[in-house]
């Protein structure tokens, strides 16, 4: 290969060479960016000796060979033009390259750090010499390109000055990574047309100052009243308040009717009081430790959510601040879910009326994987919300980690956003007018292109991670600088006084008036609507104040049920369905006619049909939701001719509620968090997330622990989310057996959620209907089956669907004489069918088997009534497939013992266990071991 290149180089050393233009262009690319050319050429150029007669490129160790210099010199005279004309044309190209270099890399030399601690790296691309330009060219006039400065040409010194002003002052723009040319040109025009510094009226500037005063005023007020108390104050990032204020007002002007906000701790209290209009007196009560909830545990003040309405030029806007725990970025997908639910409720397919605003910390934004997952969902069908405004309060330090090479592997904390080509706008928090400009551009971009955009508000934290922390122990240089650094408000006040916008005495008046309002307990959010439009709120009234009940009327008219079943099986005439799927639908037509017993897939989809028929929406997502992980659902048909899809449940009748079923991208954490957010906003819909295998819910454990199980008791947030978690021991190994039933049961208390393990098609039909028709909204965790989807004995009839109900405990199906029963086996899930088969094969008429289909809330009274049916009971056994330290045994045995003892003294004390031995892994990985364990546990249940 090297010899071939050398031969090519010999050929192109002469003007008659056929590759002159190609080789020179290649060499110029090498000088600008060595990695942009093929490895073979780069290796050759690296070995070339320098030629002293060539002009300097100001590139260290850049090799230049005489023949290349000669080629370039002679090439400029080809084609009939003069040498000087060719040189001028070449310089014109270099000027345009210089302009482009500022667009690409100007942000690296921008003055975005208020403290001036950011290491200013030299960017060769921004030097004149890099582009073979010099000071002697500064007065020469060059074309500027159609998108620059609004005129065709200008002297080079004016061009450079404009570039410096636009890209190297208080705003650092990153947008050249965007592929879409229209978006890039739009952003260029917005910044270049005003040199990144539009001129604001005195009225606007006074308003900015008032909002800065409010931001600083609240922090000073709390610091004086509660010194050393944690509040995660906004000091150092006060521009956040005028930023959010401007964002809401501008969004409202576009016709936005709702803004959903998610954020972690820093600045949360300031946002609550100064933007959302929370009463200062109510906040003070929280600082004083007064109980705010009538029931439940409550939560710390900087986790609390809030909602209110504010007035904007475009009308009233509802603001909703999401509740969230200390798990940093996990609130991001929750906000997206709530936004999507509001958009669906409004039929806002484009996302014009509901805006998501997610506020991040810099360290968390770079470090938390759920941020990537949230970005990944931004343009997907099931999860897109028309673009999110991501706002980073960039303190330049994560708790005590301030070295960038400890905090991340990227130049900026925002680099993760480039994966979705989001524009990234870095801005100096001490320049509030630049902050406002960036905010306006961000909102306009989102409304124009319906894509995510990132604002990186570069600031600092004046008091350390929290008010009880001493930051100088780990950041001595930073905090030496901070001690002498004036606040953003003080700096802006000096600027406004210099410009004659306000007087010095007036600046102090702003402070006094704000403090006086706080002392009086008055609202200080100046746009707050005191009598809000209630139609902007989500109406939870029908679902409040209901006591827990495990039963509900889930019967359904038989005639209408068969009509729905028939419609569900209809496929357009020109639709070619795959062969196995066609057989599924042929069988379903027989089931609808009553000539074939119903299987799981048909009963489940029929439940959705009845729920839609009664006016409730249905939303189902999961990694194989349309087909079903185990190919049992087939709710979405795929035309074998052209790939088109048909979803029968979307065509049940005219004007039906929404039915959405989507295959999700390969995520658990963000997707489940999204569905939680959706379900807390749409109580009128059945919202389901299905795991590919129940074990994979591990990847979303934070959502389960911090939101699903405890959201009601911490924040009084109701949620009717349903989880379908395939669970059952089939010999598929440790990661495809257990949905970790024990973890869910461990989280159960205060009737916070339901954990069920249905074993028949009728049971899943009524369980899903119960979740919709009851006016109770509690999370429902379903340990759903795998092998039972096609088990010959796991079938139901149309009559059981139409006339039945969900049985929390299924009685024994065998014809046993109650007085002959000495042993009672309790179980849940598919192990029942193994137990029933053993009993039949061994003719054990002395043993009854009860299926506990609802493990929480545990139906003690119902179980006791069933115990009482067997007067000669001597032994009670709990049988499970899971190892002894897992499954329901340790979390539910106290219910069983209590119930058994209530029937017969000592019966509960002797309750015994039949199952796998305690194990660190959920299941065996070898089929032979699995089979032997399963045989043994069934035998133990009967013969211990």
UniProtKB/TrEMBL annotation:
NCBIfam families: 2oxo_dh_E1 (TIGR00239), PRK09404.1 (NF006914), PRK12270.1 (NF008907)
Transferase among keywords: no
Protein name, entry field: 2-oxoglutarate dehydrogenase E1 component
Biological process per Gene Ontology, one example term: tricarboxylic acid cycle
Known partners and oligomeric status: Homodimer. Part of the 2-oxoglutarate dehydrogenase (OGDH) complex composed of E1 (2-oxoglutarate dehydrogenase), E2 (dihydrolipoamide succinyltransferase) and E3 (dihydrolipoamide dehydrogenase); the complex contains multiple copies of the three enzymatic components (E1, E2 and E3).
Keywords: Glycolysis, Oxidoreductase, Thiamine pyrophosphate
Origin: domain of life: Bacteria
UniProt catalytic activity: N(6)-[(R)-lipoyl]-L-lysyl-[protein] + 2-oxoglutarate + H(+) = N(6)-[(R)-S(8)-succinyldihydrolipoyl]-L-lysyl-[protein] + CO2
Species, as recorded: Larsenimonas rhizosphaerae
InterPro entries named among the record's database cross-references: 2-oxogl_dehyd_N, 2oxoglutarate_DH_E1, DH_E1, KGD_C_sf, ODO-1/KGD_C, THDP-binding, Transketolase-like_Pyr-bd
Needed cofactors: thiamine diphosphate
An MF annotation (GO) of this entry: oxoglutarate dehydrogenase (succinyl-transferring) activity
SUPFAM superfamilies, A to Z: Thiamin diphosphate-binding fold (THDP-binding)
CDD domains documented for this protein: TPP_E1_OGDC_like
One Pfam match: Transket_pyr
This enzyme's EC code(s): 1.2.4.2
PANTHER family per record: 2-OXOADIPATE DEHYDROGENASE COMPLEX COMPONENT E1 (PTHR23152:SF4), 2-OXOGLUTARATE DEHYDROGENASE (PTHR23152)
Any one GO cellular component localisation term in the record: cytosol
Family the entry assigns: Belongs to the alpha-ketoglutarate dehydrogenase family.
Reported function: E1 component of the 2-oxoglutarate dehydrogenase (OGDH) complex which catalyzes the decarboxylation of 2-oxoglutarate, the first step in the conversion of 2-oxoglutarate to succinyl-CoA and CO(2).
Residue ranges constituting the Transketolase-like pyrimidine-binding domain according to the UniProt record: 598-791
Gene3D superfamilies the UniProt entry points to: 3.40.50.12470, 3.40.50.970, Multifunctional 2-oxoglutarate metabolism enzyme, C-terminal domain (3.40.50.11610), TPP helical domain (1.10.287.1150)
């Amino acid at each position: 290969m090297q010899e071939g290149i050398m031969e090519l180089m010999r050929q192109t050393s002469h003007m008659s060479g056929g590759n002159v233009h190609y080789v020179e262009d290649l060499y110029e690319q090498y000088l600008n960016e060595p990695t942009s050319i093929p490895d073979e050429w780069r290796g050759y150029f690296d070995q070339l000796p320098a030629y002293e007669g060539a002009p300097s490129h100001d590139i260290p160790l850049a090799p230049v060979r005489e023949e290349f210099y000669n080629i370039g010199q002679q090439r400029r005279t080809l084609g009939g033009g003069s040498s000087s004309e060719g040189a001028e044309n070449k310089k014109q190209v270099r000027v345009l390259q210089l302009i482009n270099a500022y667009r690409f890399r100007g942000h690296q030399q921008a003055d975005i750090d208020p403290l001036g601690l950011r290491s200013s790296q030299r960017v060769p691309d921004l030097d004149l010499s890099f582009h073979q330009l010099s000071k002697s060219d500064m007065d020469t006039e060059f074309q500027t390109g159609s998108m620059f400065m609004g005129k065709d040409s200008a002297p080079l010194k004016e061009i450079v000055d404009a570039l410096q002003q636009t890209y190297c002052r208080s705003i650092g723009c990153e947008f050249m990574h965007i592929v879409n040319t229209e978006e890039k040109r739009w952003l260029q025009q917005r910044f270049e047309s005003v040199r990144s510094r539009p001129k604001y009226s005195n009225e606007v500037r006074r308003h900015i100052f008032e909002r800065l005063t409010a931001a600083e005023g609240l922090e000073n007020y709390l610091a004086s009243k509660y010194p050393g108390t944690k509040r995660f104050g906004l000091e150092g990032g006060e521009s956040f308040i005028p930023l959010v204020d401007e964002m809401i007002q501008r969004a409202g002007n576009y016709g936005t009717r709702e803004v959903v906000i998610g954020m972690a701790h820093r600045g949360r209290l300031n946002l609550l009081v100064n933007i959302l209009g929370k009463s200062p007196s109510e906040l003070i009560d929280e600082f004083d430790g007064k109980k705010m909830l009538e029931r439940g545990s409550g939560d710390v003040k900087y986790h609390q959510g809030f909602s209110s309405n504010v007035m904007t030029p475009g009308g009233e806007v509802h603001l909703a601040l999401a509740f969230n725990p200390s798990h940093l970025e996990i609130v991001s997908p929750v906000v997206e879910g709530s936004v999507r639910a509001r958009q669906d409720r409004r039929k806002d397919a484009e996302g014009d009326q509901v805006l998501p605003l997610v506020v991040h910390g810099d360290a968390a934004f770079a470090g938390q994987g759920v941020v990537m997952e949230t970005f990944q969902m931004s343009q997907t069908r099931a999860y897109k919300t028309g673009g999110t405004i991501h706002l980073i309060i960039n303190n330049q330090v994560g708790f005590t980690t301030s070295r960038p090479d400890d905090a991340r592997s990227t130049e900026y904390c925002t680099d993760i956003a480039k994966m979705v080509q989001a524009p990234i706008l870095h801005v100096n928090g001490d320049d509030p007018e630049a902050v406002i400009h960036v905010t306006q551009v961000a909102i306009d971009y989102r409304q124009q292109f319906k894509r995510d955009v990132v604002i990186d508000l570069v600031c600092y934290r004046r008091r350390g991670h929290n008010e009880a922390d001493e930051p100088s122990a780990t950041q001595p240089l930073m905090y030496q600088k901070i001690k002498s650094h004036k606040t953003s408000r003080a700096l802006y006040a000096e600027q406004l006084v210099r410009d004659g916008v306000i007087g010095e005495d007036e600046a102090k008046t702003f402070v006094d008036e704000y403090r006086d309002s706080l002392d009086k307990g008055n609202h200080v959010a100046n746009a707050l609507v005191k009598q809000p439009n209630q139609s902007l709120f989500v109406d939870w009234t029908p679902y409040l104040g209901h006591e827990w009940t495990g039963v509900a009327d889930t019967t359904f008219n038989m005639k209408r049920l068969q009509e729905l079943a028939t419609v569900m099986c209809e496929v357009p005439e020109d639709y070619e369905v795959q062969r196995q799927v066609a057989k599924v639908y042929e069988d379903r037509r027989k089931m609808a006619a009553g000539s074939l017993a119903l299987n799981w897939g048909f009963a489940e989809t029929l439940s959705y049909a009845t729920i839609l028929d009664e006016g409730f929406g249905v939303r189902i997502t999961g990694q194989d939701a349309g087909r079903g992980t185990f190919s049992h659902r087939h709710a979405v048909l795929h035309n074998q001719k052209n790939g088109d899809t048909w979803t029968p449940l979307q065509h049940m009748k005219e004007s039906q509620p929404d039915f959405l079923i989507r295959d999700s991208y390969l995520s658990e954490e963000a997707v489940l968090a999204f569905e939680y957010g959706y379900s807390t906003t749409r109580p009128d819909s059945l919202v389901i997330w299905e795991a590919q295998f129940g074990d994979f819910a591990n990847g979303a454990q934070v959502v389960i622990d911090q939101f699903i199980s405890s959201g009601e008791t911490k924040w009084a947030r109701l949620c009717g989310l349903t989880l379908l978690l395939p669970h059952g021991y089939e010999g598929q190994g440790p990661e495809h057996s257990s949905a970790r039933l024990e973890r869910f049961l461990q989280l159960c208390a205060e009737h916070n959620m339901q954990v069920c393990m249905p074993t028949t098609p009728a049971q899943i039909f009524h369980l899903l209907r119960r979740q919709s028709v009851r006016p109770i909204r509690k999370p429902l965790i379903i340990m759903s089956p795998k092998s039972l989807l096609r088990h010959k004995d796991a079938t139901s009839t149309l009559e059981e669907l139409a006339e039945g109900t969900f049985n929390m405990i299924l009685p024994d199906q065998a014809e046993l004489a109650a007085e002959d029963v000495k042993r009672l086996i309790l179980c849940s899930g598919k192990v029942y069918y193994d137990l029933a088969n053993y009993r039949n094969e061994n003719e054990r008429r002395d043993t009854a088997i009860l299926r506990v289909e609802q493990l929480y809330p545990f139906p003690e009274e119902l179980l006791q009534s069933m115990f009482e049916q067997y007067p000669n009971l001597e032994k009670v056994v709990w049988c499970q497939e899971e190892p002894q330290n897992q499954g329901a045994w340790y979390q539910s045995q106290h219910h069983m013992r209590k119930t058994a003892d209530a029937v017969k003294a000592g019966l509960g004390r002797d309750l015994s266990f039949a199952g796998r031995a305690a194990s660190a892994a959920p299941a065996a990985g070898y089929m032979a071991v699995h089979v032997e364990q399963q045989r043994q546990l069934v035998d133990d249940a009967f013969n211990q």
